[in-house]
C-alpha cells in the first residue's frame, strides 16, 4: 500500500469504506494539512473533537474512549486509514454497522457482552459529548 508520494492506495482503501477513491484523495489532502505527520495523537484528537462538536466542559475522558475505538491497532495514534474507516461508518454506515461501533465502544473488556458497569461507565463519561445530544434527539423522536 502507498506510493512514492506517501499516499495510500485509494482504490484499495475505497473497497473497505463507503467513499470513492476521489473522495479519499480529498480527505487525505485535508488530513495531511491538519496533521502533517499523517497521524493524530490523543491531545490532537481532543482538540479536533471539541472543534467538531463544540462540546462544553471536560470531554477528555470520553475522547479517550473514542480515541481507543479509532486506534484499531493500539499504536497510540490514529492514522489516515483508521480515521477514514470510522468516518465511513459514522457518515455512511448501515444501522447495524453503527450499532456495532457503539457496542464496541461500550464493551470495554472486549468480552462480547455488555455489563451494567460498562454501560454506566460510558454513559457517565459521555454526558458532555455528542452521544448525549444524540440520546436527547432519539428521546425527542420517541415521544
Ligand atoms: Ca493506530
UniProtKB/TrEMBL annotation:
GO-annotated molecular function: calcium ion binding
SUPFAM superfamilies: EF-hand
Coiled coil: none
PROSITE patterns named among the record's database cross-references: EF_HAND_1, EF_HAND_2
Keyword set, alphabetical order: Calcium, Lipoprotein, Metal-binding, Myristate, Repeat
GO biological process terms, semicolon-separated: regulation of signal transduction
Transmembrane segments: none
Organism superkingdom: Eukaryota
Residues covered by the EF-hand domain: 58-93, 94-129
InterPro entries: EF-hand-dom_pair, EF_Hand_1_Ca_BS, EF_hand_dom, Recoverin
Keyword Metal-binding tagged: yes
Family: Belongs to the recoverin family.
Protein name as catalogued: EF-hand domain-containing protein
Origin species: Helobdella robusta
Gene encoding the protein: 20215294
Amino acid at each position: 500500500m502507498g506510493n512514492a508520494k506517501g499516499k495510500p492506495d485509494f482504490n484499495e482503501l475505497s473497497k473497505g469504506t463507503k467513499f470513492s477513491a476521489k473522495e479519499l484523495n480529498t480527505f487525505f489532502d485535508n488530513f495531511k494539512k491538519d496533521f502533517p505527520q499523517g497521524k493524530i495523537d490523543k491531545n490532537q484528537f481532543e482538540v479536533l473533537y471539541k472543534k467538531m462538536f463544540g462540546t462544553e466542559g471536560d470531554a477528555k475522558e470520553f475522547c479517550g474512549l473514542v480515541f481507543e475505538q479509532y486506534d484499531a491497532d493500539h499504536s497510540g495514534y490514529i492514522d489516515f486509514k483508521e480515521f477514514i474507516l470510522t468516518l465511513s461508518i459514522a457518515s455512511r454506515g448501515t444501522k447495524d454497522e453503527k450499532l456495532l461501533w457503539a457496542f464496541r465502544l461500550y464493551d470495554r473488556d472486549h468480552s462480547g457482552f455488555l455489563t451494567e458497569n460498562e454501560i454506566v461507565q460510558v454513559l457517565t463519561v459521555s454526558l458532555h459529548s455528542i452521544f448525549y445530544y444524540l440520546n436527547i434527539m432519539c428521546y425527542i423522536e420517541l415521544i
